[in-house]
Protein: Isocitrate dehydrogenase
Organism: Kozakia baliensis
Amino acid sequence: MTQKIPATLIPGDGIGPEISEAVVRILGAIEAPFEWDSQAAGMAGIDAHGDPLPKSLLESIRKTGLALKGPLTTPVGGGFRSVNVTLRKEFELFANLRPARTLISGGRYEDIDLVLFRENLEGYYAAMEHYLPVENDPKAVAISTGYNTRAECRRIITYAFEYAVKNNRKKVTIVHKANILKLLTGLFLEEGREVAKKYEGRVEMNERIVDACAMQLVMDPYQFDVIVTTNLFGDILSDQIAGLIGGLGMAPGANIGEKAAIFEAVHGSAPDIAGKGWANPVALLMASGLMLQHIGRKDLADRLQTGIDGAFASGVRTRDLGGSAGTKEITDAIIHHLS
Ligand code: ATP
Ligand code: MG
């Protein structure tokens, strides 16, 4: 018997419990080695513990270092910080991984297979903002300060190159705006060039200015393989590459740090269809595939992918994809097509 790996499961809000249940069922079918510790957060956390980020959840992630997270709703009002941002800071999750791969052919592009790494802690999203008063207007000028540290640039870029090596990817593109933000993103580019030297002959490196990159992603996305960039650019480009494969609906993501990694679907809690049995579990399932890769079980991640590809090839579509299958039907179809 394989050793069980403790992992935190956060079913989440809205459709979260339905899609988590489906994913746990599919992972069970491939005998994924996770031992789940289920924890409430978001609205469910408020209901259970009066806190969107209960201590027991943080304790659990601190122990397991591994979490699969359904969509969470941060309650409006009540002064709660975004649960997602808090988790990122709490566990220093420096890398945001956003792969984009075509799952259903017949869309805008065929055979997209890209991976983007976004620096998750620095840049303009450090959000040190303030106003400067001018004469009688206290809010006449708005100022935002961004910062990048060499150490963090090196860490995220190295992570992207290591990922390329481990996953047989050929090229890493450093995306920057060093022609204008000469220091802030120049530093990222400099570190990129340094890190790339260590991978010479193994992984090719090239550079793109972010605006040109955005255009080229639309005109010829096939020239890209792995992209690594700073926080703000990464936020924008990661949604752009999701657009290449038909939107956020089936996009997984991961937030990775030295001590913990949290895997999630990129979509929200879809309160409009919660409880109806219609939710599409594929994004969260793909996120669990990233989690399997993260623990070194690419074999199981590949099996999941075979199941998903097989289900789609057989024509099964949930309502968000224009079909009529419910969560149970697509889950059954995926299990049926696991190799
Ligand atoms: P939140 O407030 O949690 O962000 P939202 O409604 O603003 O929720 P999403 O949850 O991302 O944003 O939903 C946008 C639309 O996409 C909704 O109509 C929702 O029903 C649909 N949707 C999102 N995820 C799924 C899914 N996994 N399966 C089916 N439909 C989905
Ligand atoms: Mg939303």
